[in-house]
C-alpha cells in the first residue's frame, strides 16, 4: 500500500493527540537544531543549508510518510558522500545528484522495493555504519582541537596527513570546550534524558565562549550571519554528461536514504507497536529528495535517533514531524541570529558523540563472535568504507553477502535491525 499514514490518522484525530504531537514535535526540534547545523558543516556546506533541509525535507517526509512517527532531516550517514560530491562537483552537482536519487526512490517505491531491505546482509549494514562513524569522527578532529588545517581532503589517508601537518596549531581551549561538551551530553543523557540535552550542552559551551571571550571559532566567525528566511527554489543546470557523471553518487544517496528510512521505521514500529508501509516510505523519501534540493538543501532521510525521540516524547501521528519542521522554521525566522554564537568545537562534540552512537562499541564483542564469513564481510565493508569509497563498499558488501547467502542455500535467517 502506498497511501501516506497521515490520511489514516486524520480520521479520528483529536485535540488530545494534537497536544501530544505538538509537545513531541517541539522536543524533536530542540534535538534537531544543533544536530542539523553540525551535520551541514561536516558535509562541507553551511549551517543555513542544514536548517533548510530539516524544514523542507522534514515537513515533506511527515506529510507523505508510510510511518506514523517518522522524523526526516539530514543525517550523519550522508556526510561522507555529500562532502565528496561538494568537493568534486560543487553544491550545484549535489543538488542534481540528490534530485536523481529522489527519482530513483520514487521508482523504487512504485516497484515495492522496500521489502528488499531484508536481503541486505546485517554484516554489511554494521560494517559501513561503523565505517561511516569513523569517517565522521575523523572529520571533526580539526574543529575539536582547533587545528588550522584549511580545506581537509575527503579521503581518509590524505585527511590524516593534513591533520597531522596542522598539529602545531592545536588549541587547548578548543579541545577543552569539546571535552566539556561531550561530558555534559553524556551526563545529561544519563541524569536528565527527557531534557533537550544537545541544546543545553552546546548552548552552555557557546555561552562560556562568548562571556569569557575565548579564542574559539564560532558559526558566525566562519560562515557569517544566517539568512532570516527560506531561499527561493532554484533549478540546477542539467546536461547528459553531468547526469552520467553523478549517477554513482545518486545511487549511493538513494541507497542510504532508502535503507536508513526503512531502518528508522522498523525501529519506531517496535517502540510503539506500529506498522509502517515500506512502499509509501520510499515514495516519501523520493518526494523529499526531489523537493528539498530545489531550495538548496542536502539529501534527507528518516533520522533514527530523532524518530526515537519523537516516540518517547509521545508523538503518535505525522503531525508531530510537521510541527518539528515548523518549529525549526520559526527559530530560523525569529532567532536565527543566535546560531552565529554557537561554538564550532561544541558542534564537533555533538558529531563525535553521534559517531560513537553509530559505531555501537558495546556490540563489537558480539560482532567478533559471528561466523567467520560474516565477520570477514563486516570487516571488508568497514575497510572499503573508510579507505576506498562508500559506493564500492556497498556494492561489494551486498554482492558478497548475497553470494554467501546463496551458498548456504538461503538458510540464513532474514535479519531484523535493532534499535540504534
TrEMBL record:
UniProt keyword Repeat, yes or no: no
Query: GO biological process annotations for this chain's record?
Result: transmembrane transport
Q: Does the keyword Methyltransferase apply?
A: no
GO annotations of cellular component type: membrane
In terms of Pfam families, this protein maps to: Sulfate_transp
Q: What InterPro entries does the record tag this protein with? A: SLC26A/SulP_dom, SLC26A/SulP_fam
Membrane topology reported for the UniProt record? Multi-pass membrane protein
From the Swiss-Prot or TrEMBL record, state where the protein is found.
Membrane
Q: Which residues cross the membrane?
A: 21-42, 48-64, 71-87, 93-111, 123-142, 162-188, 195-214, 246-268, 326-356, 376-404
Q: What UniProt keywords apply to this chain's record, in alphabetical order? A: Membrane, Transmembrane, Transmembrane helix
| Residue ranges of every copy of the SLC26A/SulP transporter domain listed in the record | 18-370
Name of the protein described by the UniProt record? Sulfate permease, SulP family
Q: Which species is this record about?
A: Sphingopyxis flava
The organism's lineage is: Bacteria, Pseudomonadati, Pseudomonadota, Alphaproteobacteria, Sphingomonadales
